[in-house]
Amino acid sequence: MALPLPHPALTAADPELAALVGAEELLQAETLRLIPSENYVSAAVLEASGTVLQNKYSEGYPGRRYYEGQQNIDPVESLAVARAKALFGSDHANVQPYSGSPANLAVYLAFAEPGDTVMGMALPMGGHLTHGWGVSATGSWFRGVQYGVRRDTGLIDFDEVRDLALKERPRIIFCGGTALPRTIDFAAFAEIARETGAVLVADIAHIAGLVAGGAHPSPVPHVDVVSTTTHKTLRGPRGAMLMAREEHAKAVDKAVFPGLQGGPHNQTTAAIAVALKEAAAPSFRDYAHAVVANARALADALLERGHDLVSGGTDNHLILIDLTARDVPGKVAAKALDRAGIVVNYNTVPYDPRKPFDPSGIRIGTPSLTSRGLTTEHMPAVAEWIDRAVAAAAGGDEDTLAAVRAEVAGLMAAHPAPGLPV
């Protein structure tokens, strides 16, 4: 099994913190990580994240900084921008947003005024907080209206979306979310946005790697702005990017800086550049398609065991399991799975009668396990472990959870993770 990486300087300066880092390395090595927004970065991305670029302030953009000494920083950011534009085929890219939520806030700043109507998928239906949901600043500063999915299919009804958009006339329409297991029809959203005069934004934070690898259709030809994190399926550091049509480039850049942020995190920019180079390689295309193949195989195996999947399956990296029929709340199941060495998150399902902090579902995905080299051949075993652990959660069977954890650790030992020691 993997051993913690040596961190001599950290250990000498702060052994307590070093021990926690080592424990996390061991935990990530031994467990089956199924949270769809998590992944393993490569050793190169990890190394770039910890360079001396951390020491440098760089407010502004390449060639237009407010600090001197940018001889090396400007080329780093320019490299990341060029790679983003080439990989996604976009006119313009901004790699400075600190994370996905600030990137989405920059979109509002660029295209809307406080009080304007904005439209996005409702959070309980699979959307994101920053798409105008009430508890978010975006729902406080703007008038958020939400669309959902059909009760019978779990799919977006574009007739309903169009009717809502025509009625409410939003300034911005967001498509994308955090718990959408099906392909996003960007062309259908674009038609509605054109008809209503809205700015269309695709939030592809979850599927950016699938788009880059050709395993999901690209939004770039259809939308005004693309917002994405750089981790998740893209396998980069914790950061974000905004991509836009050339006509929106100045508005986007001005919204990010000086609108919302000061100096960019240059060490993160460097790691983004590395991840984008990795994502342009043929092997990454294979990875993206393998993520989808694994998700579909896992969904099929869960269906064979009688599990209720929202929308009946998946087209991407993500599966949403409704545990209502199993009489096990999602939170109880998630905590039991964690004790079994299977890391998931509890999640609302569409039209969930339970509260968000104690919902009916769990959300799982295949990016991390695919990064470790697991294939469709392993998915029946993963489904069996999930099934056994959920049943054990219902019955309070800790012995079964311990047995599953041992089996999981055995498989993980045979498939070392990128960026972790062996």
From TrEMBL:
- What is the catalytic activity of this protein? (6R)-5,10-methylene-5,6,7,8-tetrahydrofolate + glycine + H2O = (6S)-5,6,7,8-tetrahydrofolate + L-serine
Q: Which residues form a coiled coil?
A: none
Q: Where is this site: Plays an important role in substrate specificity?
A: 231
This protein's pathway:
One-carbon metabolism; tetrahydrofolate interconversion; Amino-acid biosynthesis; glycine biosynthesis; glycine from L-serine: step 1/1
Entry's transmembrane regions: none
* Ranges for domain Serine hydroxymethyltransferase-like: 11-386
N6-(pyridoxal phosphate)lysine PTM positions read: 232
Which InterPro entries does the UniProt record give? PyrdxlP-dep_Trfase, PyrdxlP-dep_Trfase_major, PyrdxlP-dep_Trfase_small, Ser_HO-MeTrfase, Ser_HO-MeTrfase-like, Ser_HO-MeTrfase_PLP_BS, SHMT-like_dom
**Which keywords accompany this UniProt record?**
Amino-acid biosynthesis, Cytoplasm, Methyltransferase, One-carbon metabolism, Pyridoxal phosphate, Transferase
**A family per Pfam:** SHMT
First-tier enzyme category under EC: transferase
Q: Does the keyword Methyltransferase apply?
A: yes
Query: Could you tell me which PANTHER family the record lists for this protein?
Result: SERINE HYDROXYMETHYLTRANSFERASE
Tell me which family the UniProt entry assigns to this protein. Answer: Belongs to the SHMT family.
Task: Please give the function described in this protein's UniProt entry.
Answer: Catalyzes the reversible interconversion of serine and glycine with tetrahydrofolate (THF) serving as the one-carbon carrier. This reaction serves as the major source of one-carbon groups required for the biosynthesis of purines, thymidylate, methionine, and other important biomolecules. Also exhibits THF-independent aldolase activity toward beta-hydroxyamino acids, producing glycine and aldehydes, via a retro-aldol mechanism. Thus, is able to catalyze the cleavage of L-allo-threonine.
Recorded protein name is: Serine hydroxymethyltransferase
Task: Tell me what organism the protein belongs to.
Answer: Streptomyces genisteinicus
